[in-house]
Amino acid sequence: MVVAAVTLETRLAALTSWHHDWSELRVAVLGLGPVGFSVADTLVELGARVRVIAEDADADRDRLLDVIGAERFADADPAARLADLAAFDPELVVPVPELRLDDPLSEWAGAHGVTVWGDIELGWRLRDKTPRIADWLCVTGTNGKTTTVQLTAHMLAAGGLRVTPAGDNETPILDVLRDPQGYDAIVVELSGFQLARLGEISPYASACLNFAEDHLDWHGSADAAWAAKAKIYENTQIACVYNREDASTERMVEQADVVEGARAISFGIDTPPPSGFGIVEGILVDRGFHEDRRGEAFELVTVEELSQHGLASPHSAHNVLAAAALARSRGVTPGEVAQAVLSFAQQPHRTERLADRAGLRWIDDAAATNAHAADAALRTLKDVVWILGGVQTSTDLSGLVAAHEHRLRGAVVIGAQRAEVLAALRQHLGERPVTEVSSGELDASGVLDAAVAAAVAMAQPGDTVLFSPAAAPGDQFSGTAERGRLFQAAVSELE
Fold first, then answer.
1. What is the Cα–Cα distance from 417 to 258, expressed in whole angstroms?
2. Same domain? 366 vs 410
């Protein structure tokens, strides 16, 4: 029995290539979303025996499991899923990122000595399907990840590289790695959930944009959340990019065990020190990769140019600077960085300015899933009617409201978890109006129709209505894209 366990452990440790022998390895995939399906599909292609165990199953993906030849078991009862996992007797378990570390199935694997890999560790082991093995530039943070990843990929493409963003639910890393042409670079967006199960990878460059206490129900504590994010810098080869205005990210770099020669590169919207990116007299500059970085800097773009492209807010400027640092680390020239910034199209639902309606300015920030993101949007505005609410992931709503109460005309609260939000607003807004939209008989579209109508009723001409939920969308909407689309549809109906 001991010999078998050692043999299996040795086999798994040696599986570090697409071209190794994965045949007949029994793998349980826990969860069936885009990431779970990508894991199952990849491992079946490699010849493993795969069983997907999930609480429920999307009908299309469930059907596709039959097509690819994966087994599956779906049941809402955790005990039933646990029994099925034990009966399958897996040699490897791969949970989807959102599955907590203390989920009973994950804990069963740990208690029984079964190896657990996240999708990112699996992807790292399989990154050599084609001879064109990509460098990984990894990005995490509480806010701004997706925009920074998209910006970085756009800059690398301007530099002539074949590149793609990956890592989130929309673009699982394993789907990207199976592209037959391969890539020169992949810009990998990593959540705290993925980082908690990161395993051994070695990024070409890495960045933590910022850190705020978020998803503490998942991580268990602020220290655990910080430790997960800090893993982004481990084994980095060339550049550890950090926010010098956020001491938490600087501490992560200071404590990281990196490849010898890797440099710490800071970014911020102040005057940069040597080895930093920042702003001098209205110009974004690079002092990180200039030969004479103590005395000179490369000019990138002006703040005025950022303004013309909707990127001049402090949080957007941070994203541009972080992306520039990552791209420059991979050899993109300052001119190519500038070209990319000035041709970049922002992702929808991220402080997206809509057409003025009913005498009001409307901003769609439906992608704001936490207080940190909403804070970034609120900082740039005044005379705001704020629409917010959803599945709460942040711990300091009261602090957020207190910081911005002077900007608020009133607020409209949606979502199933409204009590905490309402309490924070009423504590700080005094007599200013706070309206609650109860879903009741309303569908998702009706909720936002009602919220928009309530905002119009309390706003004054020239005010801004900001839809920045500061919460995840899972209670009433399928995702941030749906709630943003429905918000825009409700606004478009106004005169």
1. 42
2. yes
